[in-house]
Amino acid sequence: MSNVTFPSSASPGISTLSRREDAIHAISSQSPPVRKPAQRKSKTTSWWKLDISPSERDLLIASTVFKVLLFPSYRSTDFEVHRNWLAITHSLPISKWYFDTTSEWTLDYPPFFAYFEYLLSIPAAVVDRRIVDLNNLNYDSWSVIVFQRSTVLITELVLAFALLRFIRGAVDPSTQRIISASLFFHPGFLIVDHIHFQYNGFMFGILLLSVLSARNPAYFVYLLRAFCMSPQGKLQFARFLSLANIVIAVFVVSVGPFLLMGQLPQLANRLFPFKRGLNHAYWAPNAWALVTALDRVLLRYARKFGSGFAVNSEGVASSSRGLVGDTVFAILPNVKPIHTFIITLAFQSVFMIKLWRTPTYKSFLCALTLCGFVSYMFGWHVHEKAILLVLVPLSLLAGENHAFFRTFILASVAGIYSLFPLLFTPAETLVKILYSTIWMYLVFRPLHRRVYEFPKSLPMVIVDQLEKLYLAGFILLQLFVTAFPILTKRLTQSQNNESKQNFANSTEPGAHPIDLATTNEGSMEFLPLMLTSVYCALGLTWAFLRLSYTYIKSSPR
Amino acid sequence: MDMDVPDQAPIDGLYPRKASGKRRLSYASQTSGNVRMASTTGTLSRAGQLRGHASTLTVRSHAGSETDQTEIHSPVPTRHFLLQTESHQWLTSGTLSGSPASSRPTSPVSAVSTSFPHDGFSSTSPRLGRRQPALSFSSLHEYGNSTSKDRKLPSASGSLRRKDDDRGEDGVDAGMGRRWIRWMHRNRMREGVLPCSIGAALWIKWCVGLGGYSGAGTPPMYGDYEAQRHWMEITNHLPIRQWYTYDLQYWGLDYPPLTAYHSWLCGLIGSFINPSWFELDKSRGIETPESKQFVRATVLVSDALVYIPALVFFVRALHANRSKRTQSLALLSLLLQPSLILIDSGHFQFNSVMLGFTLLALNFFSQGRDELGAICFVASLGFKQMALYYAPAIGSYLLGRCISLGPKAGSRLFLRLAITTILSFILLFLPFLPPFAPLTGILDPIIRIFPFNRGLFEDKVANFWCASNVVFRWRSWLPQPALVKLSAVLTVLGFLPSAAQLVFAGWKTMDISNGADVPKASSQKKDVVVSVPTLPILPWALLSSSMSFFLFSFQVHEKSILLPLLPLNLLLSGSPHDSFMFNWGVLTNNVAIFSMWPLLKKDGLAIPYIATTFLWNYMLGYNPFRKMTHRRLLRYISLIIYSAMFLLHITELLFSPPRRYPDLFPVLNVLISTPVFVLTWLWSIKRGTEVTWGVVGLSLRPKSSKRS
Prior knowledge:
Chain A contains 22 helices and no strands. Chain A has helices spanning 11-29, 54-69, 77-91, 111-127, 142-155, 157-168, 173-184, 187-197, 200-209, 217-227, 237-260, 264-271, 287-305, 313-317, 337-357, 361-378, 387-397, 402-419, 426-451, 458-505, 513-525, 527-553. The radius of gyration of chain A is 26 Å and the shape is globular. Residues 1-48, 211-217, 319-324 and 507-522 of chain A have low confidence and may be disordered. In chain B, helix 9 runs parallel beside helix 13 (324-335). Chain A: It comes from Sanghuangporus baumii.
């Protein structure tokens, strides 16, 4: 494990580097070069002159059909949010976009997303005028469902395109094909995009395609070191300036109109709501979920045995009720946004230093994953959907060696499972479980065969067994989560009946049966969610540690 | 040394069951191995041993790559040359049919195998101690191929085949299903194909179930969904005597008792989870998400418990001598059959249970367990009376079987069949029979099950009556009883040929001399593989009889097209891509789904209608627009039909029907669909005759003497 190398660090690293360069030039000059595939089989049939082999076309079509079948499935409020944004961007001038409060779902995504919604609203108005009617709140006729769902499908083609390009340039196309397919069929995207409704596939398509996301420091260091520095360590000013120009230009295009209108404060206000708490309503399974859970356990302990903990009365009230708001700990010291910021930055800088020393493509991918992972683990008010930020780049590493593959399995299983509570309706339970199981089998099996290594030492054997045990535990967890509501429902029903009888029999006032039932239900209602969160957090924390260790210990050669 | 000589030379002819791609590789690796060995050690005798190593080595070096060189296989144990010549397959594989579209040639099968000189080598000993002309189900494809125009002569060099295989290997025609199965095999996930196929099918069925269903949100009567749910409600709250009499105006129970028992069980489980879903009268029209999901789940679970095992059994039993991949593909195509998914999981019905029981009956027949088969068919009838569409075929098959066994054994079988059938019917109706109910009690279900007081046809259904009604106006010409008689006569005429074929075939294979062997055979029944000569005729007979019922009988629903589709799809599964069977079968399937379009449109299932149909066609690699060098006529016919269907859909989307003819689109739909169904019916009779001919010949004398 300690001798992990990056096999493609020599010549493939250079080739990928030049690919990056090409990408940058292509973006700056607005003329993407026509790329010939690296390994083009003579038998590959041209299909509408697109460079797609039959198996890739199969994947594309199968995925599309599966996702089309999910059109009538559950939609979260995000669906209405996006419809409202279509209406805002279509019927209001740009100066009013960030001020409109007709609906409670105000526009709170960055400007590029607003432009994107504006583009989508043009065909939307053709399909059905009422989609873009600002006052037509909670509109859910077939036209809008089909339209919005298909926009997700169509924009996801960007992801397909990016993944196809990954295959074309890959050292081992057959492994990369599995990884690309796994990403295109990722249960995370299926759950978040195609059922819950968002445009993550499109976003990640862009993320994978381009280097524009300057938000992630890993990009900066990688570009700075490998692109702007000559091998001798001299800074190449022309390159540096071109890079800086691109970043600035993009930023200006994005924010420019609002800057001109003097709306930046309002924009910032919408984009960064710091009023929210440390944890989301459903704790995203990160480090803070573990800390919060520990706090709950300590509180129980303190109540029972009355040991010398100073109990914060505010924290007792702010328990795991699943309310959006500030999380206050009862026993442990409270966490402020600045703490999370510092921890995140500290971890990220460690990986940045490592990346600075080994600026290869694989190292870059690994650092990118880890930066996302750190933000997810220690960020302020992290949403569980953010796990995709980790899983997507991590998937690209899965075929490297067994250590990465094992981390990938752990993170994927825990991460995908942690997305399950997003779909709480009974109909989607089978959809998500069955789909994820088949996906895991079809992805893990062939990759496992390619990278498997026997655990070499006794500690590794123990770790290996523990990890397997952990993965098997998800079956028990799912059984519990499924059975728990039915059982408690029956229990509370019988209790309710009993207490009703008691109430009818007894003459003393005060014992109100309904109160009793609701409190009982209320305290137990979030137990499955809490358990899911903590169990997934365990796995993800372990995966994070594992990946960090693998990365830090890896030697460049 | 002698044993090694045929190792290489006759290998092309001796292993017809292997894919030629496979053979090519093993041949190559074998040759290199042999050459190397010969040069180093000089002993040919070791080459045979090392051959296996060489091939596995080659294979390992290629593992994981995407070229077709990775066709992996374990070394084939070689039998002695003399033994090989006795091989069933070899003797009967006169036609190594090079089907250009499939990646491997259809398995040569024991289509017309006659007696063998050395019985000692054969592993199968038929039930009655005498070798019947061994015929398996998939021999039909073989038969179809041998009659097709593009039949290729077996070439020793295999070069011709190789060229064809290349087209099949990576060509567009191979189909997604086959490509996926191949990928699974290459990645050593062979054992995962079955669970993944079943899982995917269940997933798709469930997703279709997310959409609309029959009568969603349309009080006061709702639709089929409410009917089924209502039966779960009344069977759980009423004594059995009232099941068929309670409030008949609101979806009174009109299916046979097995459906009632099934509803009772589902209702029982549902009431345990949440009693309010099935409260008597109060729960009418309940459409909460939870109750809906539960009722949907009952369909999926019944499907998974009856229909899917029956399909797996079918593929294992009746495609036994096809390759693993073809079996998997056949299963996949049967699992994803869109019409059944759309009606059962979308529109909401339990057809798959009825079809599953019929299929189980067919499977048991193929194993020679006629009594079990009969019980299964009674269960099918007891679940839905519509299984009667199959009854003529099944009945005449069993009759033919009794005849073919000869007077003594045949009459014993007949008695056994009669007793088991009657007993299972009695068991089915037990709660309505004397000890438990007065004698008149049996009348309640019977009256409800056979409604002759309804019209000739209800909605627009793509059968003969509805289509010809455009011209003839039957209902104004003839009174109701006359119509009933007319339809009965036409239906009987429709299935008579196929029934006659089965009885005739039974008579032709009749064996008079063998009655004495029966007790011995029945004592060894367990480990005996029975050959059933008339079995290949049965699916055609099922098709033609159910199709004639659909076309000509009284009171047909558009959903009844599912019944002819079952045997059609059984025949279709595993047929090579360029065969008439494949092309016509898929066409009929697509037309059948199209004929149910008005129904599906009403249920709000437009998206699953497009998605599942497209997926199934794509998975099979069906492409009606592909240029074919032969079968021009078929291609033109399909093109005309598809363009008509497409045009109708477009017109319906863009225009509303004229006020004078509000039913214009459904009627046009019927006019497009009916000719296809009629042609399928005629074709099934024709093919049934051909198969009968192939099995027993057409001379009128039974083969009375035992061959030696």
